[in-house]
Design goal:
The chain is α+β, with helices and mostly antiparallel strands. It has 6 helices and 5 strands; from the N terminus they run αβαββαααββα. Pfam families: HbpS-like (PF03928).
């Protein structure tokens, strides 16, 4: 039986290879990540979303504190629930939520079937990306919810590339 809320077992035509997703994480690293950086990155995401009329919610957390949140027209409280579930995956695994899901799919299973984590609390769907500081590690997350999961992931990656001028 198909459950639309579960991650698909395989989507080879859509899913970038795990190696490509891992390269994104190695490349998208900050020298530091301050309150001002959170505001600037969040504002960039809002600007991008407004230009595209994307119905998203945006969240930035660092060390357990929410530093930025915005909800754009068309987003709903459900997007905030998805943000929390995707963010928990990044906090637990130290990798992008989409990459975590892709790693399970690459093994021929799904996150929901094999992680042993409560799907009401954790979602390995695209849209949450680790905020990694060089020589420190993962210090937080930037998360978008409201688009199909690969688009959420790509939206965050595009914003990080622009912010980090890569």
């Amino acid at each position: 039986m198909h459950h639309p809320q579960l991650t698909p077992r395989t989507t080879p035509e859509l899913t970038p290879p795990v190696e490509e997703l891992e390269k994104q994480e190695r490349r998208l690293v900050f020298r530091q990540f301050t309150y001002d950086d959170a505001w600037a990155l969040g504002s960039l995401l809002v600007e991008m979303a407004r230009e595209r009329q994307a119905p998203v919610a945006i969240d930035i957390h660092r060390a357990g504190q929410q530093l930025f949140h915005a909800a754009l027209p068309g987003s709903t409280p459900d997007n905030d629930a998805w943000i929390a579930r995707k963010r928990r995956v990044v906090e637990r695994y130290g990798s992008a939520s989409y990459l975590v899901g892709a790693r399970f799919r690459a093994k021929g299973t799904t996150f929901e079937e094999s992680s042993r984590l409560d799907p009401d609390e954790y979602a390995a769907h695209g849209g949450s990306f680790p905020i990694t500081v060089e020589n420190v590690g993962v210090v937080g997350t930037v998360t978008v919810s409201g688009l199909p999961q690969l688009e959420d992931h790509r939206f965050v990656v595009e914003a990080l590339e622009s912010f980090l001028k890569l």
